[in-house]
Amino acid sequence: AAAVEQPNRTSVREQLGKLFAPSLERTTCCLLVMTMSINSGWYGLILWIPTLFEQVGYSQGSIYSSALLVACSNLPGNLLSLVLIDRPEVGRKRLFVGSMLLAGTLALVLGFSQTQVVVVAAAMGYNMVSVGAWNSLEVLMAESYPTEVRGIASGALHSCGRIGSMLAQLADGFLLSQGAITLLSVNAGIMLLGCI
Description:
Layout lengths: L11 H8 L5 H22 L2 H7 L7 H10 L1 H11 L6 H22 L3 H29 L2 H31 L2 H16 L1
Helix pairs in contact: 1-8, 2-7, 2-8, 2-9, 3-4, 4-7, 5-7, 6-7, 6-9, 8-9
């Protein structure tokens, strides 16, 4: 019987090395910063919403019902990004940059606002526009790499993003002890870094 020819398989290390080949190095570095910034910024704010509401003096109704409103703002954000992502005048890059810029601005509004309505509205807006950054980043990742490294690129970038979100939780606990404005200012800076 004829021997079955085995497909040529490369190691994970070799596949990861391809992401930093001269033709893909800049793309990988940019997407790495973008992934780390959205993960660190988004998880850095959204997971601390009930605590942030308490620190800014939110007392109207249940903090957790307001946190639920913030979570529900994902739906209109997803629908809006669905409409905008393929429009030629917007596209993936502009949607990402615009979403991150607006999210950073809303984080500052949340930190410096004095009224409870503005606090909840800013948190809802932050969550809603951040979804546009997540969705456009996913498309940018898929479109930026050749098929043979697309899977490893997505896995590596998402893994680095998760590490960023874990580190953000450790840092954010400390920053929150310094005050909500400190946490939200750092968060806004991280989101703005993703724009650049």
